[in-house]
Amino acid sequence: MSVEEKYTVEFTEDGCAILRMKNGQNRLNVMTLMAINKALDKVEQNSSCRVLITTGEGKFYSNGLDLDWLKANPERVPEFNVLLIDSMWRLMHFPLPTVAAINGHSFAGGGFLAICHDYRVMRSDRGWISWNETLINLRIRGPMQEILHLKLDSRAIRESVVYAKRITGPEAVSLGIVDSVTSADRLISEAKSLGFGALGKNNIDRDMLKTMKQDTFPRKEFGVEIPSKM
């Protein structure tokens, strides 16, 4: 099975797109990011879709960057860095309500993937969200810091990023990292409730929603606003 085939989109009758990541730990490299973006293309091309949900499979939502791949392909690191940041901002400014249904662990880059969604729901019984860069002596550079400070408050950043604590679902709710927790069998239904609840009875124009997200969460790198690329 190709990498692309491990990132599938299911369109439901109620107008939801469920992007399922079925690639083990769902680590991020050039191929997996390209597969995610192709899946997002399919969602945007479906005019009847009203909500996007992403979720993993098994133990992991996403275990972050594929460090082994990056070490083995140093010549592609610049390409990866650009694609990673562009992909995160594409999700931040996606023209539909977006919900991360965090089925398991979400570490470092996987944590960024999750918080780039409008809403997040975790399992109540298992799974951590954390940025462990402090523990492995890696800095979080400017473009990703911008995302952190747009999406999380200082208390959440202190606990989950600076001190790299492994945050459970209930703890993540108290810190404002996620919106709710639920059981594994209700994860998708809770994600749907968050996504459709955001719309209410409103028929929000996709382009206007994207524009409002761009205005509210402006893309910046090292404090300089950058025009949206996706």
Automatic annotation (TrEMBL):
Q: Which SUPFAM superfamilies match?
A: ClpP/crotonase (SSF52096)
- Top-rank taxon: Eukaryota
The keyword Lipid metabolism belongs to this UniProt entry's keyword annotation: yes
Keywords, comma-separated and alphabetical: Lipid metabolism
User: Pfam family of this protein, just one?
Assistant: ECH_1
- Its Gene Ontology molecular function terms? delta(3)-delta(2)-enoyl-CoA isomerase activity
Q: Which reaction does it catalyse?
A: a (3Z)-enoyl-CoA = a 4-saturated (2E)-enoyl-CoA; a (3E)-enoyl-CoA = a 4-saturated (2E)-enoyl-CoA
InterPro entries linked to this entry = ClpP/crotonase-like_dom_sf, Enoyl-CoA_hydra/iso
Per the UniProt entry, what is one GO biological process? fatty acid beta-oxidation
Naming one, the record's GO cellular component terms include: peroxisome
PANTHER family named among the record's database cross-references: ENOYL-COA HYDRATASE-RELATED, ENOYL-COA HYDRATASE_ISOMERASE FAMILY PROTEIN
Instruction: Tell me what this protein is called.
Output: Uncharacterized protein
Organism per entry:
Pinctada imbricata
